[in-house]
Amino acid sequence: MTHEQAEQIVMNLTKPVFGFARSRTESIQDAEDIAQEVVLKIYRALLTRDDIAEPEKFAWTIAHNTLANYYRSRAGYGSSVPIHGLAEVLPADGDITARIEESETVKRLHNEIAYLSKTRRQIVIMHYFEGKRQKDIADALNLPLGTVKWHISNAKTDLQKGMEIMRTTSELKFNPIKFNIIGTNGSAGNMGDNGTYLRSILGQNILYLIRQEAMPVNEIADALGVSPVYVEGELEFLEENGFALKQGKGYIANALIEIPTTESNRLVSDMHEKAANLLAPALFDALAANIKLGEDGVICPRNDMNFALWAIIPYITAWSGTLDEAVSFQEVATIRPDGGHNICYCAVHNPDATPMKYSESLRAIRGPSWNGGEDFRLWFMDTMWGGNRAGNYHPDIANRDLSSLKAFFDTTLSDDEIIWMAERGYISRTADAQGCTYDRLDIVWLTGEANKRLINLANDIREKYKTELSELKSAHNKIYLEKAPEHLKKAWTFCLQHTFHSDCIFIIHMINKLLESGKLQLPTEEQRKSLCAVVVTV
C-alpha cells in the first residue's frame, strides 16, 4: 500500500479511534495516548503488510487489543475498568484457544456478578466497574462504610464459588410454559383483571416454578436460564401486586395454578356432565312452565322466551343452592394496589392433554360476573355464543353501567347515555334528526320478588338431587385439595365451594346439554350482544 493510501485511511480513523478510547478510559490524556498508539500501529502495518484485505476491520482489531493492554497495565495500580469496556479485555498475543478461554472467563464473571444479592451487586459494580471509592459508595447507598467493606470482601468469595460450580437449568429454559387461562375470582381493580399483570412469559414461568414451594432468586434464575437481575425485577413486581409471597429466603406463588392432564380433564368433564344431565332439563322445564314474560316481574325484549332463558338459566344456576361456606372470601382474597380484591387462578397450556368436553365453549368464556348498586345488580356471563362484552371489567365501567341503567327508569337518558347503553347491548338505538333515541330495553330484567321466586324454584330442584351432586363434588374436590400447596389449601377450598353454582364449567355444560336436546335454540345475531345478561332489582 502506498504512503498516500495509508495516510488517508489513518486520517479517516483518527477521530473515531479517539472517541472509542475516550469512552473507555478515565482521562483525556489516556485516551490521546491510546489513540496515538493505535493509529501508529495501523499506519506501520498498512505500509509493511500486503495481506490486509479489510483495512478498517483490521484497524479496529488493533484498537481493541491496545485497549486490552491498557487495562492490564493499569490493573497493577488498582484502576477500575469501565463496565462497557470489560468485555473487550482479550489477550493481545497467544493462540486462539487462550483468547477464547479468557473471553469465556470474562463472560462467566459477568454472569456470576448477576447472581450476587442486589445490594452486593450494586457495590461491586460501583467499586470495580465505575471506580468509586468505598466512602462514596457508602454515601450513595446510605450504608455504613464497614458494611460496604464487608460486602466487597465477601463478594470475592461468592464470585469465586460461583465460577467453580456448574449451574444447571430446567426444561423451562428450552420449553417455557404458557398460561392459557388467567382468571380473576373477585373484583378487578383499576388496572383490569389479573391477565393484565401476568402478560409476561417470564412472570408466568416464575409463578409456575414456585407454585409448590418457595425458591430463592438464584435457584429460579438457574432453572429458567435467565440472569438473576431479570428474575429479581420480575419477582419484585409480582410481590408488589400480590401474586408472589416472600417466604424465608425465597418466594412462593400466591395464585392457584392448575396443570391439566388427560386424566384431570376427564375427571372434571365426567363430573360436570353427570351433574348437568340431572339439573339442566329439570331446571329448564320448571322455569319455562313458571315464567310469564311481562308479568310476575320478568321483563324481556319482545317477550322472547328463548332469549329470556339464555339469561335466566345461567343466572339462576349461579345463584341458587346452599353453599358449604367453610372458608370466606375475605380469608383468602388478595387486596391489590390498584383496588382489586380477588383470587388469581391460572391454567397451564398442555398440548399433550386430551381437552375437556366442550373445550371450544370454555376457551371463549368470561364470567360469571356481577356488580351491584343501591338499586340494581347487573349479572352477566360472556360465552362463545354472546358478544363478549366483559373484557377487563374495570370498576369505572361497572359504575357507569349501573348509573345508566338506573337513569333508564328514573330519568330521561342523555345522548351519551343512550350511546353507551347501546354499545353495551342494554338498549336498541336509532338515530334521527332529533338526535339519539332508543326503541326498547334489550336485556332481561327481574324484580326482587321475581328473583326470589325463581331462585326458590331452582332450590327445590337442587334438593331432589342433593345426594348425587354432593357425592360427585366430594370425590372431585378431594383430588384437588390433596395436590394443593399447603399455603393455598384455603383458597382452593373457597373456590371449590362454588362447584355446580357460579362454576363456569358447569354452566357451559348446562347450556350445551340444553342446546343438544333442542330445549334452547341458538340466539339471533341481534341478540348476541346482551345474551346471558340479567338486571335484578335489589
Task: Please characterize this protein's 3D structure.
- Residues 75-101 have low confidence and may be disordered.
- 32% of the residues are buried.
- The chain contains 21 helices and 13 strands.
- A hairpin with a 2-residue loop joins strand 10 (427-432) and strand 11 (435-441).
- The strands form four sheets. A five-stranded mixed sheet has the order 5-12-13-9-8, with helices on both faces. Strands 1, 4, 6 and 7 form a four-stranded mixed sheet that branches. Strands 2-3 form a two-stranded antiparallel ribbon.
- The chain is an alpha+beta fold.
- Helix content is 54%, strand content 12%.
- The protein has helices at residues 3-22, 28-48, 55-75, 96-114, 118-129, 134-141, 145-164, 194-197, 201-209, 217-224, 228-240, 262-290, 305-319, 329-332, 359-363, 395-410, 415-424, 448-464, 466-483, 489-496, 504-517; strands at 179-187, 244-247, 250-253, 256-258, 298-299, 334-335, 341-348, 366-372, 376-382, 427-432, 435-441, 444-446, 533-537.
- It folds into three domains: 3-164, Arc Repressor Mutant, subunit A; 171-258, Winged helix-like DNA-binding domain superfamily/Winged helix DNA-binding domain (Arc Repressor Mutant, subunit A), CATH 1.10.10; 267-537, no CATH class.
